[in-house]
C-alpha cells in the first residue's frame, strides 16, 4: 500500500504536481465553438463517452445553431438525431426545454451563474461547473465526474460517496488555482492508468502515495470492495 502524505492538503498538492508533469496538455476533450454547443455537449456526455458525443455533435451542431432551433425542433426529430447517445430521448427533451428557457428567460444567451444554470432542465451542478469554467471563465467549484469521484477516493482525498460532498472536500484541499485543471488531470489519469475496472498500479506515478495501491492494499477505496 502506498503511504499518503501527512495531510490531505499536502496529498492533493502532490497529486496535482505529479499529474501535471504526466499530462502537461490536459484539457477538456469535448468539442464546441460556443457556449450553447458546450452546454449541449455536456448534457449529452452524461453516462456517455466524450468520443461518442464528439462524433454525434459534428452533424448536430451543423443542423441546429441557435437556442430557437433546438426549442422548435420536434421531439422525435431531435431524438432521432441523438439516437446513438445513451438516454437520447431524455436528453433530447432536456435540450429542447432548456433551450426554450434560454430563449424565454435569458434573451437567447446561456446564463452565467450557478443558480440560473442549474435551473435549466437536465443541468446539475457538474454540468453547470463545466459551462461556467469553459464557457464563462468562472471557476467557483470542482467538476466531479466519475473519474474524479473514483480517483479522489482511491487517493484518500475524501471518504464521501456523492459528488456534491466530494466537491466540498476537494475545494477545501485542492489549491484554488487548480480547481479547473484538477478535473482534467483526473480524467486523463483515469482513462490511461486508473480505470474503474482495473488500475495499472505498476505504471502509476502516484502509486507510492496511494492508499489503494494494489501492491499491499487489498481494498479499492473507490468502491470499498476487494481488488
UniProtKB/TrEMBL annotation:
Q: Which residues cross the membrane?
A: none
| Family matches, as InterPro entries | DNA_glycosylase (IPR011257), HhH-GPD_domain (IPR003265), HhH_base_excis_C (IPR023170), HhH_motif (IPR000445), Nth (IPR005759)
Which keywords does UniProt give here? 4Fe-4S, DNA damage, DNA repair, DNA-binding, Endonuclease, Glycosidase, Hydrolase, Iron, Iron-sulfur, Lyase, Metal-binding, Nuclease
- Provide the binding site for [4Fe-4S] cluster: 194, 201, 204, 210
Q: What cofactor requirement does the entry state? A: [4Fe-4S] cluster
Answer yes or no on keyword Transcription: no
According to the UniProt entry, what is the EC number of this protein?
Answer: 4.2.99.18
Catalysed reaction, written as an equation? 2'-deoxyribonucleotide-(2'-deoxyribose 5'-phosphate)-2'-deoxyribonucleotide-DNA = a 3'-end 2'-deoxyribonucleotide-(2,3-dehydro-2,3-deoxyribose 5'-phosphate)-DNA + a 5'-end 5'-phospho-2'-deoxyribonucleoside-DNA + H(+); Hydrolyzes mismatched double-stranded DNA and polynucleotides, releasing free thymine
One biological process term from GO is: base-excision repair, AP site formation
One of the entry's Gene Ontology molecular-function terms is: DNA binding
Parts forming coiled coils? none
Record-linked Gene3D superfamilies: Helix-hairpin-Helix base-excision DNA repair enzymes (C-terminal), Hypothetical protein, domain 2
Domain HhH-GPD, by residue range, is: 44-192
What's a Pfam family this protein contains? HhH-GPD
Look up the domain of life of the source: Archaea
Co-factor note (free text): Binds 1 [4Fe-4S] cluster.
The UniProt entry, under PANTHER family, shows:
A/G-SPECIFIC ADENINE GLYCOSYLASE/ENDONUCLEASE III, ENDONUCLEASE III
Function field = DNA repair enzyme that has both DNA N-glycosylase activity and AP-lyase activity. The DNA N-glycosylase activity releases various damaged pyrimidines from DNA by cleaving the N-glycosidic bond, leaving an AP (apurinic/apyrimidinic) site. The AP-lyase activity cleaves the phosphodiester bond 3' to the AP site by a beta-elimination, leaving a 3'-terminal unsaturated sugar and a product with a terminal 5'-phosphate.
What does the sequence similarity comment in the record state about its family?
Belongs to the Nth/MutY family.
Please report the name of this protein according to its UniProt entry.
Endonuclease III
The gene name on file is: nth
Amino acid at each position: 500500500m502506498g503511504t499518503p502524505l501527512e495531510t490531505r492538503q499536502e496529498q492533493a498538492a502532490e497529486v496535482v504536481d505529479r499529474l501535471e508533469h504526466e499530462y502537461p496538455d490536459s484539457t477538456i476533450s469535448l468539442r464546441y465553438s460556443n457556449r450553447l454547443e458546450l452546454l449541449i455537449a455536456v448534457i449529452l456526455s452524461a453516462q456517455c463517452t466524450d468520443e461518442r458525443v464528439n462524433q454525434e455533435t459534428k452533424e448536430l451542431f451543423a443542423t441546429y445553431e441557435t437556442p430557437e432551433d433546438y426549442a422548435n425542433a420536434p421531439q422525435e426529430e431531435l431524438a432521432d438525431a441523438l439516437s446513438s447517445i445513451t438516454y437520447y430521448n431524455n436528453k433530447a427533451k432536456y435540450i429542447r426545454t432548456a433551450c426554450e428557457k434560454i430563449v424565454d428567460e435569458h434573451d437567447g444567451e446561456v446564463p452565467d451563474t450557478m443558480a440560473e444554470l442549474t435551473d435549466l432542465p437536465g443541468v446539475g451542478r457538474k454540468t453547470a461547473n463545466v459551462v461556467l469554467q469553459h464557457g464563462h471563465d468562472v471557476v467557483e467549484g470542482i467538476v466531479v465526474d466519475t473519474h474524479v469521484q473514483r480517483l479522489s477516493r482511491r487517493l484518500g482525498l475524501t471518504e464521501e460517496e456523492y459528488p456534491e460532498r466530494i466537491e466540498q472536500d476537494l475545494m477545501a484541499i485542492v489549491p484554488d488555482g487548480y480547481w479547473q485543471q484538477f478535473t482534467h488531470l483526473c480524467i486523463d489519469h483515469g482513462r490511461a492508468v486508473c480505470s474503474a475496472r482495473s488500475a495499472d498500479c505498476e505504471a502509476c506515478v502516484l502509486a507510492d502515495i496511494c492508499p489503494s495501491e494494489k501492491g499491499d492494499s487489498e481494498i479499492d477505496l473507490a468502491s470499498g470492495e476487494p481488488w
